[in-house]
Amino acid sequence: MSDPAFRRRAGATFRGIINDLKRTTEAAAADLGVAPDVLAAVIRGDRELPAELLRRAVEVWPVNERDFLPVHDDAPHGVRICRVAESVATSRIFQRGGADYYEYRDTAMSRLAMFRPEWIRMLQPVADNRPDNPAVQWNAGHFLYQFTYFVGAVNYYYAWAGRRFCVETVTGDSVAGLPYAPHSFAYRAGGSGLILALTYGGRLLGDAQHELAALGPDLAERYAPDDPGAGPDDHSAAAAALRQHLDDTMTPAARLAEASGVPAGRLADLLAGRAAAAPDELAALAAALRVPVRDLLPVSGDEENGVCQMPRSAAPVWSWPAEEPVAYRVRGLAGTLLCPNSRALELEVTGRDPAAATLRTGLHQYCFVLGPDPVRLCWESAGTVHEAILQPDDSLYVKPFVPHGFTRLEAGRSTVLALRIGGKVAGDTRREAAALGASSLRRLVSDTTQWYDPAGSR
C-alpha cells in the first residue's frame, strides 16, 4: 500500500525508534549495514522501509516488527461510510448443528478503531424460552466485549458461572456482555429477529495482549487476583491491589504504616482483606506509595451474571441539547463499568439545522441508521464541510473530535444507533496525553528530527 501519508508516519516512527535507542542516522545505518542516505529517505517518507531492513533491525535491536508499522488511516476525511449494498455483499450463512443458524453481514469498520460490528439475522426459531432448549446452539465465548441491540422477537441466551439464562427481547432492548461468556440467539416462532452485534476491543487488545502472550499463561494470569472478591463485604481484591504496590515499590508493611500514619494493626487487616480502607486512609496510603488513589481501588463492574441488560422500556431518555431547538432525543443503552469509556446511545433525529445538531466526542464512534427513513449526515474535516444522505441500514465510522451531526430530511423520521469507545488513548493513556500538552503530542506524531543538534545548542 503506497501511501505518502503512511510513509511519512512510518518515517517519524523510525526516527522515534532510533532516537530512543540513541542512534544517529549514521549509527543506525552502520548497525543495519546500509548507507545513511537510505535511512534518511525512509525518515523523510520518500521511500518505504525495506523488508530486509526491518528484519535486520529486529535482529540487532531490542524491538519488534510491529513497532515500525504505523496504523493505516482509512478515514482521511474523518468519516468512513459503509452503504447497505456493501454490507449485503458480505452476507454469509453459517451452520451450527447441521442447520443454518445465522446470516452475518459486515457493517462499517476502520483500521483506526477496534470495532467489529456485525448485522446478524437469526435463522433458528424456538417455541419457548427455556435456556436448555436443544435447538439452541451455543458459542464458546470470545475475547471482544459485545454490545447487542435487538430488532424483532429475539431470545438472548447467555451462560455465567455454570448457569444458563434466557431473556425474551424486543426491538430497542440492549445488552452489554463480558469477554469469553458463552451466548447464543434465536428468534421466536411466528416472528423474525436480528441483532446488531457490535463487538469491540478493550484495553487488553493489541500491545497488552501481545505482551501477555509473550509472558506466557503462567505469568499472565498473575495480573488477576487469585480471588477477585464478590459482594460489598469481600475486600480481597482491594487487599490484592495494595499488596501488589508493596511488592512493586519494595515497601515493607512497617514502613508503609509509618509513612502513611495508618496503624500497623489496621494496615495488617487491610492487607489481609479483613477490612476496607476509609477514604482518608486511602489518601494517606496512596500518598505514601506515590500512586493515585484510584490505583488502590479494586476493579468493580455492575454486571449481573456477566451481563448488563437495558430493556427499552427502562432506558433513560433526554433531549440534546437541553434547550430549544432540540436536535436529538437520546436514549441511553446498555453498558458496563468495566468499559467506562464506552457509550451506546440511540439518537432519534429531530432537528433540521446542521449547526444546532453538531456533535463532538473524544471517542471513536460507530453509527448504524435504524431508519425508517433516510437521514442527512454533515461533518467537518480539515476545514472542509462534507455531506452525505444515509439510507436505513447504512453504517459509518467517525474519528474522535471530528464535528458531525445528523439532521432530518424534509419528510421523514430516522433513528441512529451510536456506539462510542475509547480506543488506545483512553484512561491512563489519555491522562498522560493531557499532561504532555498539545505541542508535545503534535511533535510525538510528526517529529523526524534527531534528538540533538550535532552542531551544538546552548
Model description:
Helix content is 27%, strand content 28%. The protein is an alpha+beta fold and 458 residues long. It folds into four domains: 4-70, lambda repressor-like DNA-binding domains (434 Repressor (Amino-terminal Domain), Orthogonal Bundle); 89-200, Jelly Rolls (Sandwich), CATH 2.60.120.10; 232-296, 434 Repressor (Amino-terminal Domain), CATH 1.10.260; 307-421, Jelly Rolls (Sandwich), CATH 2.60.120. A seven-stranded antiparallel β-sheet has the order 1-19-16-21-15-14-13. Strands 2-3-4-11-6-9-12 form a seven-stranded antiparallel β-sheet. A four-stranded mixed β-sheet has the order 5-10-7-8, with no helix packed on it. Strand 2 (92-96) and strand 3 form a beta hairpin. The model has no long low-confidence stretch (mean pLDDT 94).
Keywords summarizing the entry:
434 Repressor (Amino-terminal Domain); 13 helices; alpha+beta; Cro/C1-type_HTH; 7-stranded antiparallel β-sheet; Jelly Rolls; 4 domains; globular; single chain; XRE family transcriptional regulator; DNA binding; 458 residues; 27% helix; Lambda_DNA-bd_dom_sf
Helix/strand-derived category reads alpha+beta
Helix content: 25-40%
Largest sheet: 7 strands, antiparallel
Q: Roughly what fraction of the amino acids lie in strands?
A: 25-35%
Strand order of the largest sheet: 1-19-16-21-15-14-13
Q: Work out the number of β strands.
A: 21
Tally of domains: 4
The helix tally amounts to: 13
Protein name: XRE family transcriptional regulator
GO molecular function, one term: DNA binding
